[in-house]
Amino acid sequence: MAKEEKARAKKEQVKGKAKEAMGRMTGNERMTAEGRADQMKGDARQAKEKGKDTFKH
Predict the structure, then answer these.
(1) What is the spatial distance between Cα 35 and Cα 31, in angstroms, rounded to a whole number?
(2) How many angstroms from the chain centroid is the CA of residue 44?
(3) What is the pTM of this model?
(4) Which residue windows does the record flag with biased composition (Basic and acidic residues) (predicted)?
(5) What are the Cα distances from residue 52, in Å, to 2, 48, 49?
(6) How confident is the model at residue 50 (pLDDT cuts 50, 70, 90)?
């Protein structure tokens, strides 16, 4: 399960970066903001998984 969550976090981060970049290129502020939000969700998920790993060891 942890590997799936880590992969999901990475996917959200990559998706967010792409969305943010596309928003910047097109001048779409909403898309840029959504991209940043996706990245933050991925960052939070990744931090949660790292915390779990810390307590396992």
Answers:
(1) 6
(2) 8
(3) 0.80
(4) 1-22, 31-57
(5) 9, 6, 5
(6) confident
